[in-house]
Design a protein that fits this description.
The complex is a heterodimer of chains A (205) and B (76). Chain A has three domains: 53 residues, no CATH class; 77 residues, GMP Synthetase, Chain A, domain 3 (2-Layer Sandwich), CATH 3.30.300; 64 residues, Ribosomal Protein S8, Chain: A, domain 1, CATH 3.30.1370.50. Helix content of chain A is 40%, strand content 27%. Chain A contains six helices and nine strands. Chain A has a three-stranded antiparallel beta sheet, with helices on one face. Chain A has a three-stranded mixed beta sheet with strand order 4-5-6, with helices on one face. A three-stranded antiparallel beta sheet of chain A has the order 7-9-8. In chain A, a hairpin with a 6-residue loop joins strand 8 and strand 9. The longest helix of chain A has 23 residues. The radius of gyration of chain A is 26 Å and the shape is elongated. Chain B has one domain: 2-Layer Sandwich (GMP Synthetase, Chain A, domain 3). A three-stranded mixed beta sheet of chain B has the order 1-2-3. Chain B is globular, with a radius of gyration of 12 Å. In chain B, a hairpin with a 4-residue loop joins strand 1 and strand 2. The two termini of chain B are 20 Å apart. The longest helix of chain B has 16 residues. Helix content of chain B is 42%, strand content 24%. The chains are: A alpha+beta (205), B alpha+beta (76). The interface between A and B is medium-sized, with 24 and 20 residues.
Chain lengths: 205, 76
Amino acid sequence: MEKTIATGVTIQDAIDNGLKELNAHRDNVEINVVEVPSKGIFGIGSKLAKVEITLKDNTEEVARNFLNDILNAMNVIAIINTNLEDNVLKIELEGKDMGVLIGRRGETLDAIQYLISLVINKGKEKYIRVLLDTEDYRARREKTLQRLAERLAKKVVKTRRKVLLEPMNPYERRIIHFHLQEHPRVHTYSEGEEPYRKVVISLKK
Amino acid sequence: MVKLVEVIAKALVDQPDAVEVKEVQGEQSIIIELKVAQEDMGKVIGKQGRIAKSIRTVVKAAAAKENKRVIVEIIQ
């Protein structure tokens, strides 16, 4: 966690100096007074105020507020559940209209997830990964992709011709690669450039 | 829709006060014009337009919910 020790003629000065140094707002920090200033006698033995300022980790709050603003502007009502653990922020939405938020093949969900990650990681050193989900969409999609992988692998074996899948994001491609990793007859690789990169399933030589 | 673009843009940029969003009625669709500080252009466009694409995807979803067609344009 980021912290600093700042000094000033008064406690308020010290706090202001520290906030400037951390580029932070008073609401997002914890302040600890280390030394109370004293004027001393005739300027002898005078002491500056010293405060310790620690940046609070308000990632969850920032994510919640941002998501809430988006949902309000979209006229979607949902309950937001968050959980931050090991630099992964999991966010789950519950409500009506979740289909709107998921979008075609999860593209809206992915877009919102990406925007949240940009907002919470802005100006931060340590990177926090965001996983946004609703109605168990991610798990359902994973199952669908696994079934698809299996079906296409069978087709490749039968026809002895490689198969190109439609473009997918890195996360979805990984599911396919991972699922066919141990397959005895086929192997997988990706080709093309983002965002049109595709998985190819082909026969092992 | 203006509000949605504004909320997203303001959260992404370093100079939220410089964010301006305007709605213009096009022939077939609504056009949302987004203007940010010059130094913040990269923050709303992103590498290979990835951020702009995400903003458009979210706006498109919100618009579809209300049976509207919306185009987001980022202007200099």
